[in-house]
């Protein structure tokens, strides 16, 4: 049987069939003319006329650093998942499979840039210098955040889908109004992370409109991991997501989200565009969520194991390992060293998590506002009195 072809909207009254939608979205699965890739799944360096110059200066040592980032971020993620299974965390949001998209884009940022994550960006947090233990409080239910978001320039996690695109648009507009844009050296930019499902939210549309209307220095970084919980990409869009940018009047690029070098290069380019006043830019990182949506989800109920197996062959870590070993002769002592470091990180995360103190009942009211608020203080006092009204049987 002939493969269905992607839909080309020549006649304004034409409608794509479901098969054509699937062909259009998945046709790039094996690369596709528009997919930017610098490291193939087999670890080969792929030339790219447009983006090579943004990766040329990456030395072997820096590539090793990226490999280390990927391995440590994956280990931290697996520990988070295991700690939830052991009852130490209420929930965990796994990033498995998305390490390259997060590390590559995160490492393209400068300390002065601002990042707005959703809830899965533990790998970006790592690149902002946030220790994985600082992420645990939200998932253990002992904190609302846990890191210094202005010092690290990494905003608190946003659970409301797409909402951070509005926050980020506003922030980037501020950078523009305060003339912190224009110079490639001192210019600032903002990056905003969201998922494929989020692109169906009004907030993302509004973020696109405002950022475009005000030439905001904002990189919209969409991790298309093919699923929004149980909803597949085909239910979100008829066209590849990066093409949506055109309708808003800014460029969109689709990058192999499992290729850390390509993600680094494309995000460097996008940030440079923004810094020099040519923002916003949309990046679609074409990747895959290898685990369930969260630890509360069972992905085997809605997707086939075949699909997951296919994506295992495109693993973001393995291709860097093969490339370092085959092309640059990096030996096993390096890889063993990184594994040992990952083991250390894992046990540090576990020990930290188990020793986390239980917050007092007043904690939920603190830091709601910078200054004291009479309403919040009243609610706190009422709650503390209510709490104190319980008789402690053990006393
Ligand atoms: C406004 C809003 N609607 C619904 C939800 C419930 N919800 C949580 S995650 C999610 C799917 C998001 O999918 P996607 O944007 O692809 O991001 P991913 O989780 O795949 O990274 C939904 C619908 C929510 N958190 N916020
Ligand atoms: Mg998704």
Q: Which descriptors apply to this entry?
A:
single chain; 395 residues; alpha/beta; Rossmann fold; six-stranded parallel sheet; two-stranded antiparallel ribbon; 14 helices; binds thiamine diphosphate; binds magnesium ion
List the helices and strands and how they pair.
Layout: H1 18-26, E1 35-36, H2 60-85, H3 99-108, E2 114-116, H4 122-127, H5 136-140, H6 149-152, H7 163-177, E3 190-195, H8 202-213, E4 218-224, E5 227-228, E6 231-232, H9 244-248, E7 252-256, H10 260-275, E8 281-286, H11 305-312, H12 316-328, H13 332-354, H14 374-388
Parallel strand pairs: 1-7, 2-3, 3-4, 4-8, 7-8
Antiparallel strand pairs: 5-6
Helix pairs in contact: 2-3, 2-12, 2-13, 3-10, 7-8
Provide an overview of this structure.
The chain has helices spanning 18-26, 60-85, 99-108, 122-127, 136-140, 149-152, 163-177, 202-213, 244-248, 260-275, 305-312, 316-328, 332-354, 374-388, and strands spanning 35-36, 114-116, 190-195, 218-224, 227-228, 231-232, 252-256, 281-286. By secondary structure, the protein is of the alpha/beta class. A 6-stranded parallel sheet has the order 1-7-8-4-3-2. Strands 5-6 form a two-stranded antiparallel sheet. Helix 10 (260-275) links the parallel strand 7 and strand 8 (281-286). Helix 2 (60-85) runs parallel beside helix 13 and helix 7 (163-177) runs parallel beside helix 8 (202-213). The longest helix is centred in the N-terminal third of the chain and has 26 residues, at 60-85.
């Amino acid at each position: 049987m002939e493969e269905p072809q992607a839909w080309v909207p020549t006649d304004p009254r034409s409608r794509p069939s479901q098969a054509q939608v699937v062909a259009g979205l998945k046709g790039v699965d094996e690369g596709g003319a528009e997919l930017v890739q610098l490291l193939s799944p087999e670890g080969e360096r792929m030339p790219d006329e447009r983006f090579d110059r943004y990766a040329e200066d990456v030395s072997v040592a820096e590539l090793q650093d990226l490999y280390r980032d990927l391995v440590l971020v994956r280990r931290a993620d697996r520990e988070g998942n295991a700690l939830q299974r052991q009852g130490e965390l209420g929930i965990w949001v796994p990033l498995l499979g998305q390490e390259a998209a997060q590390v590559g884009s995160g490492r393209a940022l400068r300390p002065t840039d601002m990042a707005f994550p959703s809830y899965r960006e533990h790998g970006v947090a790592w690149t902002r210098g946030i220790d994985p233990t600082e992420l645990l409080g939200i998932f253990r239910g002992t904190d609302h955040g846990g890191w210094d978001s202005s010092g690290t320039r990494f905003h608190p996690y946003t659970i409301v889908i797409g909402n951070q695109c509005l926050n980020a648009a506003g922030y980037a507009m501020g950078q523009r109004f305060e003339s912190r844009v224009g110079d490639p050296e001192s210019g600032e930019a903002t990056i905003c992370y969201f998922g494929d499902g989020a692109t169906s939210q009004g907030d993302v549309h509004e973020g696109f409109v405002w950022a475009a209307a005000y030439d905001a220095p904002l990189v919209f970084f969409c991790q298309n991991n093919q699923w929004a919980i149980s909803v597949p990409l085909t239910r979100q869009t008829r066209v590849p997501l990066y093409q949506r940018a055109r309708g808003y009047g800014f460029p969109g690029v689709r990058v192999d989200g499992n290729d850390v070098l390509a993600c680094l290069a494309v995000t460097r380019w996008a940030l440079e565009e923004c810094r020099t006043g040519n923002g916003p830019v949309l990046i679609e990182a074409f990747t895959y969520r290898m685990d369930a949506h969260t630890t509360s989800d069972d992905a085997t109920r809605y997707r086939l194991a075949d699909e997951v197996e296919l994506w295992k062959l495109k693993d973001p870590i393995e291709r860097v390992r093969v490339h370092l070993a085959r092309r640059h002769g990096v030996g096993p002592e390096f890889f063993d060293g990184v594994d040992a470091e990952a083991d250390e990180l894992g046990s540090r995360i576990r020990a930290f998590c188990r020793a986390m103190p239980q917050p007092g009942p007043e904690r939920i009211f603190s830091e709601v506002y910078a200054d004291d608020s009479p309403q919040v203080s009243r609610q706190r006092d009422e709650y503390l009195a209510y709490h104190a009204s319980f008789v402690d049987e053990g006393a």
